[in-house]
Structures are given as C-alpha cells and as structure tokens.
Amino acid sequence: MARRVVITSYSIISSLGTSPSEVIASIRQNKTAFTRSPVDETTFVCPVRDFDIRNYTGPCKERRYLNRGAGFSVAAALAAIKDAGCSTGELNKAGIFVGAGPNLDITSEFPEIINGAMDRPDLMALWMLRFLPNTAAAVIAGRTGIHGENLTTGAACAASTQAIGEAFRKIKDGYLDVALAGGGDSRLHSGGILAYGKAKAISRRTGNPAAASRPFDADRDGFVPGEGGAFFLLEELEHARRRGARIYGEICGFGSSIGGDSLTAPDPSSLYEEEAIRRALEEAALDPSAIDVISAHGTGTLLNDVMEAAMIERIFYRDTHCSNRPFVLALKSWLGHLAATCGAVELAVALTCLHGNILPAIRNLQKPCHKGINFVREGISSAARTLLLENFGFGGQNCALVVKSGNVDE
Amino acid sequence: MDTLDEIKKILTEILDIEGQEITPETYLVRELGTESIDLLELAVAINAHFHIEVKDDEIFVKALRLHLQKAKDEGFDPAKYLAESYPALTTARIEEILADIEGGPVLKVKDVQSYIEWQTKNKDND
C-alpha cells in the first residue's frame, strides 16, 4: 500500500501571531501589522514585532551567523518540534528541508567594501555564513539532532513550498519516516525594498498602510514585503499512529514545474503554473472538483493576479462539470509577501483557519480583477477540508500542494 | 575599561553567555565551551578591538602539545622551549601550564589578557 504522509506538528512565526490561537484572534479582529517602512517612507511593510530568536533557542552563539530570515527559520523549526514528542532516535534519522532566500540586506552587510576590504570592527571571521543558504539548516540540525537526508531549496518565492513538497516525497517514497520542512525569510530591510522597488514589484500606494496589499483587486499596484517563518513535522502515517502522535492534516499531493520563459514575469498563458497544479492533483488522485479551498499565490502584483485568476477559472471553473467551485483565499492580504517562506507560512495560516472552521476574507478586495471566481469577500464559517496551496516564484518556479486538514480518514 | 573587562565583554558576546562569571582563571574551552570556530571569531574581534596583530598559536596557546613534542624530540628543556614559543607568558604561568596539561586544554582568560598586553606594549615601543 502507498505510504501516506501526515502533519504531526507545525509552527508559525508571523505578523498575525506566533501561535494558531494568536493568528485566529488577529483574523477575527481584522488586526494586521501593515505599517510604513522605517527605512523607506514611500513603502509599506508587514513586520513581525519583537522577534528575538533567543526566545526559541535560549543562549545561541550561532545566531551571529543567521541573517534575519535564517533566524526565523531556525526559530520556527525549533518551535515545530518542541512539543512534537519525537525521540532522539527518531530525530537522528529524520530529514530537514528548508526553503531559503538570498540575504539582500545589503546596506547592513556591505556598507563599504573598498579594494576588496571592509574596515569594520564587527566584521566576523565567518561573516560569509550569513549568506550561505544552508546555514539555517546546519543550525537546525545542530540544535535538534536531526541528521538524515536534507535539502535547502532556493526556488525564489516557491522555495518553502518546494521544501515541503520534497520532504513529502522523501517520506512517501520510503527514504524517510520523519522530516521537518518549512522556511523563514525577511525582505523588509532597505536592500530588499531597493531590489523589489527597482523591479517595480512592490506597492507604492499612499494613505492607509493596511490597504496596500490587495490581491485580485482592480486597484492593486504591487506586493507589500512581509517576514516570518513556519515549519511542519511530516511523518509517515503508520509511524505517526504507532507513537500516538496528533495528526493535523495530510499532504496528499505535490506538483512542481519550471517555466523559465521570463526570469521574473509570470507566463500569461500560465502553462507551467497549471502543470504544477495538475501534477499535485494527480498525485493526490483528486479531480479539481474535490478541492474546497485554494490558497492562491495572490501577490497583489498586476501580472501575477491576472494570470492566476484566469488559470483558476480554467482549471476549477470551466473544465469541471461539478458544482463544487472552490473558495479562493489570498493570505498575502493579511501577511504581506514573505518571499521564500510565503508558502510555509500561508500553509500554516490556512491550516489553522481550516481547523478553526473559518475562511478569512481577501482584505481590500473591492473590485475583483476577474469575474466569476469564488473569492472569499467576507470571512465565513466553513467546514472545508481539502486545500490547494499555490506558490510561484521568479524564474518560473511553480509549486502546488494538496493538503487535507484534520485527522485522516480510516 | 581595562583589558580584562574588554575581553570579558567580547567573550560574552561571541559565546552568548550573558551573566556567566568570567575571571582571569576561567578556562576558555574547559569551562566556557569555546570551540575552534569561536576562537576564529575571538581572534578577529581582538584584532579589531585592540588594533594589535593576533597570532593564533601565541594568543590561544594552540600548538602547545606540538611544541612539547618537538622539545622532547630535540632534547630541549620544555619550559624554556615554551617560553620562546610563547613570549607573552610568564615563567610562572608556563610552569602552571606544564602541571595542568593532563586536565585538557589549558587556555585561560589571563593568557589572552597577557598576550594582548604584551602585544600592545610591543606596538607602543615601535
């Protein structure tokens, strides 16, 4: 019989809160953290306030080598296994899969390199570790005792979704019984804002900061940078049952593809985005009509949202003859865009919402850019269980996961 | 701030050990858990902070056992040989180290302090 993969623990560090109950409370109170950037007054950002990695690690000399995104990664990984009840032996054989982004914090990290040298007293001997993508994975391994198969993915904004998908496959295919998968990222610093500002990807709206992230709205003008981290403990179903682990959901399918046609813009025909989604559905052995809820990538950029809405219509509304038309969420309207870790954090928030039987509204969606799609316009109660998560990154990196929330069917 | 206080501050930061007592007699490896990667950072921080040249072996008594082996192989007096290798250390400290060698890495905070003060004096005399 095919091996099934379940989620037996998960963590979240986000601007909406650092536990499922905090996230639910923020959503119910419509409370977000969008604010004006302290480094660029023309930009809005969505920060995680008062983050201190030592609240998760205790004293931690390795934190000097962690950029802020990697710090979120390590903190979220430790939080995910803290109460998971895995033995030292189980962790020793477990895998670690981390979605990581580049460290773009260039103004803090490279203030003045002259003739190849930097005259700065706090420049560390191993400063470069702040740039190596696998530093977070190494610190997580050192702190958790996880020593099995591992992978650090760098698939831009699909990186953490890919990390979860690859971990799922390693368990499904029998290489691992247990894996920790997720990511952490932060692009709120001036280097991040410079980079995405030059690419004309971030919102330049004025006025209310909480109105700037508006996925699928006709007046959208770009994304709002966010930050945070989330990790999932994935486990083979029988392994989880034997140790009596609580089951939060099941990963049923993963799909990925690479478009590569444009290095940044989504393909308007969304050929390969669609391919990733169809592969995930196929692996889950589900018809599009079986999907209750889609957590869209929904960045609030002009190009992504028009492409994604047309694709959702094509896969889930036109080609299916079933009356079940999935609800569409866009969690970036609550969190901002968490870059490499958007998938992990959005999955953690979506799973939390499904457990709480709520579907949060797409905030600021006043005039939908695409007609006939079941965008969630006001928060609703729902017993929806089957979720499709979509994330698309620069380079045409496309990933999709099919996840069923709650305990598994017998 | 005197040299010792500055060393304590640097060690506390690099090892993330706020609140832990550090005295001249504290062992860096045996008591504070300093690893080779931390010594690398410590050398860079001391160089940047005190503006002195930092020779890894001399400041951290790194190659102690190699020097002793060499002294033995070539028939030199160990204490004299070490005194030449580690000019910042006093004769008394070298005797102490030789008596302590079975207990593990001998490096103490006061050795780092001696090196910094010795190098600072050399620099001032230049």
In summary, what is this structure?
The complex is a heterodimer of chains A (410) and B (126). Chain A has helices at residues 20-28, 54-57, 68-82, 88-93, 106-109, 135-144, 159-172, 190-198, 237-242, 271-283, 302-318, 332-335, 342-355; strands at residues 5-13, 35-36, 44-45, 95-99, 150-153, 178-186, 227-236, 249-258, 293-295, 327-329, 358-359, 380-381, 386-393, 397-405.
Write the layout of secondary structure elements.
The complex is a heterodimer of chains A (410) and B (126).
Chain A: E1 5-13, H1 20-28, E2 35-36, E3 44-45, H2 54-57, H3 68-82, H4 88-93, E4 95-99, H5 106-109, H6 135-144, E5 150-153, H7 159-172, E6 178-186, H8 190-198, E7 227-236, H9 237-242, E8 249-258, H10 271-283, E9 293-295, H11 302-318, E10 327-329, H12 332-335, H13 342-355, E11 358-359, E12 380-381, E13 386-393, E14 397-405
Parallel strand pairs in A: 4-5, 4-6, 9-10, 9-13
Antiparallel strand pairs in A: 1-7, 1-8, 2-3, 6-7, 8-14, 11-12, 13-14
Helix pairs in contact in A: 1-13, 3-6
Chain B: H1 3-15, H2 36-50, H3 56-60, H4 64-74, H5 78-85, H6 91-100, H7 109-125
Helix pairs in contact in B: 1-2, 1-7, 4-5, 5-6
Protein chains sharing the most extensive interface: A-B, 13 and 14 residues
What series of H and E elements makes up the topology of chain A? Answer: EHEEHHHEHHEHEHEHEHEHEHHEEEE
Low-confidence stretches of chain B: none
Principal-axes shape call of chain B:
globular
Give the total of beta strands of chain A: 14
Looking at CATH, the homologous superfamily of chain A is Thiolase/Chalcone synthase
Helix content of chain B: 55-70%
Any overview of this molecule?
The complex is a heterodimer of chains A (410) and B (126). Chain A is an alpha/beta fold. Chain A has helices at residues 20-28, 54-57, 68-82, 88-93, 106-109, 135-144, 159-172, 190-198, 237-242, 271-283, 302-318, 332-335, 342-355; strands spanning 5-13, 35-36, 44-45, 95-99, 150-153, 178-186, 227-236, 249-258, 293-295, 327-329, 358-359, 380-381, 386-393, 397-405. Chain A has a single domain (5-405), classed as 3-Layer(aba) Sandwich (Peroxisomal Thiolase, Chain A, domain 1), CATH 3.40.47. In chain A, the strands form three sheets. A ten-stranded mixed sheet of chain A has the order 5-4-6-7-1-8-14-13-9-10, sandwiched between helices. In chain A, strands 2-3 form a two-stranded antiparallel sheet. In chain A, strands 11-12 form a two-stranded antiparallel ribbon. In chain A, β9 (293-295), α11 and β10 form a beta-alpha-beta unit. In chain A, α1 packs across α13 (342-355) and α3 packs parallel to α6. Chain A is globular. In chain B, α1 (3-15) crosses α2 (36-50), α1 crosses α7 (109-125) and α5 crosses α6 (91-100). The longest helix of chain B has 17 residues, at 109-125. The model of chain B has no long low-confidence stretch (mean pLDDT 95). The interface between A and B is medium-sized, with 13 and 14 residues.
